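PROTEIN FOLDING TASK:
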Amino acid sequence: MARLILILLTLTGLLAAGTAAAVPTEDSIDFYVESYGALTPEDDPRIAIAYRVFERVRAAADQSRHRTPRLVVIGGDTNAWAIALPSGHIVLSRKAVTLCFKQADENLARTRLAFVLGHELAHLAHDDYWHEEVERFLADSPDTQRIAHFLDQNFEVREKELAADDKGYIYAAMAGYPVHLLLERNDTKTDFFTFWMQQTQARISASHPFPEDRAALLRERLRMLQEKVAFFDMGARLAHFGRCSDAIYFLREFQQVFPGPAVLNDLGFCALQQARQAMPPRQAHFYWLPFLLDLDTRMPRTRAGLPEDEYRFLKHFPLNGTATGYLRDAADYLKRATESAPDYLPARINLATVQLYLGRPHQARAVLAEALRLAPDDWQAQMLDALALYEQSDADIDLWSAAVKRLETRADMPPAWRYNLARLLDIRPRNSDADQHWNQLATLVPRLPRFIREQVCRHQRVQPQPQCLTTPPAGRNVPLPWSWPIPQAGGTLVTPSLRARLFAGWESIPFDWFRAKLYGFIHRAPHHTAEVMEMDQYLQLQVTRTGLPSSEQAVARACPRPLHHRRIFQGTVVTCNNWAVLLRDGHPREAWWISR
């Protein structure tokens, strides 16, 4: 952790009362294991938690090419709290684990552990072993005042420690821990840094503002992240409305400061959408495949069988260079997302879809095995696994029957599931079985995506195709139950004077991406009750979190036609024309408007 913490971690016994000898300088893990003994997860439930936290943070952290990080928890009477060794081991004492749980619930304790371990992982990633220099400097004089003086004079040490604080904070946050808790004052009126110093380094001069400085710097980091998250939010919303060519710039802006799994997933989502746009429609929509955004990112034919030139597998479609490039970009983003978060589902769903488009069903199933381990009941993962199983068929093995059997076992079929089952049934001469599914989908035509709607109308036998494709007349317009931050925003040129008037008292975050010729502002109302994205001097997207109805049914009444539903990670987005509403647990949380 920070410089004061690491001194005690590396100079075992130097600051202990009555200790006159310096800690041995061995950097071997064997020294610590032989001296203090290694503890396993079976020895203590809290030790087990520390190991689990380490695995999550390690997955999120930068990695050195020279070593693989490994955690060893030691017992014994030692003042070595946490230390990174050149071998790649991180030594964590039982006392440090106990300290992280002191005056803390399990959530806060896990977050403390994540930061401590993240700090040490940062040292490993950047080959920081400055404690050896400190040992040599202080070997003959373990005087606390001299330690303080040495650190005050050593700018490089200070910079490395603050950098490790910063990286450790980011790693812990990327791993999903609520790092803001480290900066909050607890019942003892101290933040985590002051608390740690009081517990481990009480003899260092209390007048030196080390912990206050550290907390202040990380508060500034948190403030900056909270500002930059506006770019992630806007990027994800633009992606939902199909504007990925703009969305990627917002997402990349956020990725620069917080390359977590969600932004990598949404960048992969956008690259996948761009790849599909570069494909012929019948290839892009051969199956109805799932795509998960994380916000917290379709000519008649005979029914006697497929014509000889009709593709029977998605993997048999040729890929043009543009689509291939986007798919490879998507795979890269999504693989990085899965590697940075071993328990992150959306990127695995999206990566499996990419592998199917690339004609790699075996790789898709390997990814889906991980997804189903995380979420055994996730219907999208189950559906993809059945499709990938069928795509594994070759001249020597026919897996069509096995795939169909899997899909037929589900009673409550979501529309995408039923569509893909009908697709497979159509590939073999079982038209009557396929008909029942196409006909059931025909009852949902107004709610289906455009190309899916065309395919359903071509195959169904309920009504003539032209009638099926006819868009039902829209109902009467009902006033929205909420108000937009800037009513009648479309088409108005935002001059500097108008901007100042419209957004007086708001926070305005500028952006200017020269190569893309995109510039503008993200305006945020006080308390983040509303947001407006201005681009090229026009209002492009608005968000409100106030005045929303209490249910999806009330939202539906405001739309003159059936709402379109999109599943996202931990929620749903319902869309009507140029507005959408984000639902969490069935309740409206945000309303979005986009300029068309």
